[in-house]
Amino acid sequence: MKTKFNLLLLIMLLLLHEAHAQFDNPDIEDYGTPREINLSHPDTDEGVQLIPVGIDLWEGDDVNTIYYGQIPPNAQDKPVMVFVHGYATNASVWFKGDDNMYWDVYRDGYRSAFVSLTPNRHMWTNGHMLANMLDRIIARYGNSEIVLVGWSKGAVDIDAALVHSGANTKVSQVFTLSAPHYGTGIAELANSVLLSLVNIIFMQNNDATVCLKRGYMNYFRSLTDEHINNTVHYTTMGAWGNGPLNRLIIPQGYLYLAGGSKASGGNDGVVPYSGSRRPGGTELFGGQRKEYLLGFIPYYTGPDETNLDHYEITRGSKAWPHIKANLNNVNQSSPTPTRYNPNANVVSSMQIITGGSGKSAFMIEDNVQKVSILISGKGNGHIVKSENGRTIQAKSPIAERLQGNNLQTVYEFAPDDQGKYWIESDEPFTALISTEGGIEAHLNTGLSDNKLIYQSGETIQLSLTLSATNNAHVKEATVTGTITRTTDLKLKRTDDSTIIVSFREIGGKYIADINENLYAGIYDIVVNAEGNSFAKTVLTSIAVAGEPVRKSATEPSSLSIDNIYPNPAKNSVNIQVQVKSENATLEVYDLFGRKVKQFDLENKLGKVDVQWNALSDIEPGLYILQLSQGNKKITRKFVVE
After folding, report:
1. Which of 105, 551, 613, 633 shows its CA 20 to 30 Å from the CA of 162?
2. 10 Å Cβ neighbour count for 398?
3. Signal peptide: which range, if any (predicted)?
């Protein structure tokens, strides 16, 4: 009887493993046998390594390489420390420059290995590569215990190697440093069509960026956290030491704008502290925590050990003492809940505007102490002015040069008063405007700690609240939005139509129900809220899994958009639609979901031709044409240049 029970249990475990393993696995590139190189003794006087800025760095002989550190005396009874780099870097981040990790590990008598994965591929390729590398490292050191240390995206690559490439039996413990276990808002900013002019560090259009969207990382967590191979203990160390526009001026500024400020828990310039925690693991330090002065004035505090930026946390003196002190100490305090979802609620003090040549307005609300503006575009010929004529000076007289000959200029100022401000430009641009104080937008995606993803056919409910400095809810606003599938679950790019999201106000909250028959994939969400004296933009993403309900092939369609030409359009746009019932509407929306044009289709049936001088009504950009009748809606994207 016991034998039958054990057999049944084994079958159930195998079925459970299969249930977790059956997912849309992206294409995995196999780089073959890794190259192995022996390092010389660590040098503490090599000079400071420059922060790696650029795209597709070290995409050559260094990929798929293991660097072995020198073996210090009496190291045989200690574990082998294997270090995994992050996005757009390679193994040298650990063993070059002042205060390098290699020196600290060697000095304290530990053997070490440093791996170079790809700088720009998703975690599935890098995880497969790392699993193969661990076989070579184990063959070199025999039965020694292996401990992994992963920085930034390298920690996600470790997750993929251990859980999904079966390397969990090869490793005893994992430490992660500033790891995007739940992705980062920078990845959404990098791939948003709203920011098509922006491309900077951590802003590259590659699989490594796309897989770090919050929606995809929620999907990854749903595949990983309850997997049968999720057996290795993780200890996480996050960082929160950057306020807006400090040392990591460009990426940190974007992340701050997207809701990772010290007032909401902090970030290190790339990863919000809340996203650096891994479910079921141990949080090494408490990070930022809300406390109250005099019992009612909120403020955030945290330990000095994590008051670091994203690159400082890789330095030996900053991280190694805490790793060494916690080796084999798997019963630490401050465990992260096994069910945890910091992406369920997204906070933004950001406003995004796009403009062409000429003047573009933006609003600054009451109680704002400071305004930060990042303007990106092909040129540098822009001026920021207040309504009373004050010209705002740029923080630096020299603009930051970005990829593709784009330039970015940073402005910081204390506003004269609430009201209208202007950006005057002689080239198209994108501006991200952040305020300290004033109004924050809080978007709940309908997810929770127990719900990381949606299933096809399930109603998606978005809920937005607007809160002022005094915590009062703002109840007078116009809230619009869009949702677009940007990749499938294999991370393949899609060119799906954008869906317009309609919000309604209920008791101080703005609610939207999305009942579309969605296909599986990652969906980017843009929500825009505007009042008399403010505007806020929220960007995030969600994952949808499963198969949509198939519509009957014989069901006749009463609506169709037959053609939009020319597309892109220089000025005039010709639109051809089919209308087979009365009361149809034809409308144009921008990427924020704001209606910018409506055409009269009253009493028009059959084939309808519309000619429109678009530039007389709208600025150049990407727009959505929507033809609707009752609950039926179809959309098409088009561009006006």
Report:
1. 105
2. 9
3. 1-21
